[in-house]
Amino acid sequence: MNTNDDTILTLKALADPIRLSILEFLWDPVSDVFRTEEGICAGDIVDFLDVSQPTVSHHMKILSAAGLVEAEKRGQRVYYECITERMDGVIRYLERYRQPTTPSLLDR
Amino acid sequence: MNTNDDTILTLKALADPIRLSILEFLWDPVSDVFRTEEGICAGDIVDFLDVSQPTVSHHMKILSAAGLVEAEKRGQRVYYECITERMDGVIRYLERYRQPTTPSLLDR
Predict the structure, then answer these.
(1) pLDDT of residue A67
(2) A83, B14, B32, B99 - which has most CB atoms within 10 Å?
(3) What is the β-pairing status of strands A77-82 and B40-41?
(4) Can you give the CATH number for the domain in which A69 is found?
(5) Does A14 contact chain B (CB < 8 Å)?
(6) Using a CB-CB distance cutoff of 8 angstroms, which residues of chain A are in contact with residue B28?
(7) How many domains does chain A have?
């Protein structure tokens, strides 16, 4: 097997509707209520998604472990932002499946 | 939530080391033993990965349901090939996370 563990870990982290919503929100906060100088904190994600604080913590741990977000504690709050290196790696991995290297067998 | 169900289904199908190995094998059979005019059948995948027939069937069902492979029964054998439309959709979805739209907050 020549797929690497990072790719699997990142794909697993991405394969969840709540985590994709969190990434979309971090990437592009939908409202000026959330779009502040300080960035997006865990409480903003709780408010936006209307889910519990433990649910957000659970998903942020998975996204952090997969290298998709970075956390920074400032005072009592934890701020998050997306990081792109792992995402780049996954896209580069998947792109090999975009163009067929051989003619379609089913078309013959 | 504005992520669509197809994207989640495809990401879930991709987030598994055996299924990624199957896609890699279907895309580019590693040996001329497998690279025949007829294409790759379920038995070839069993032989290549050295896993059981039920294991291969289980994973092929998930890959087919996610629109990542297409199956064709010919006689006693089922042949498979990769299809690219869903993969294209996933890559297009993920590409939005490649370039930051705002300067990094953590760099300030």
Answers:
(1) 93
(2) B14
(3) unpaired
(4) 1.10.10.10
(5) yes
(6) 101
(7) 1
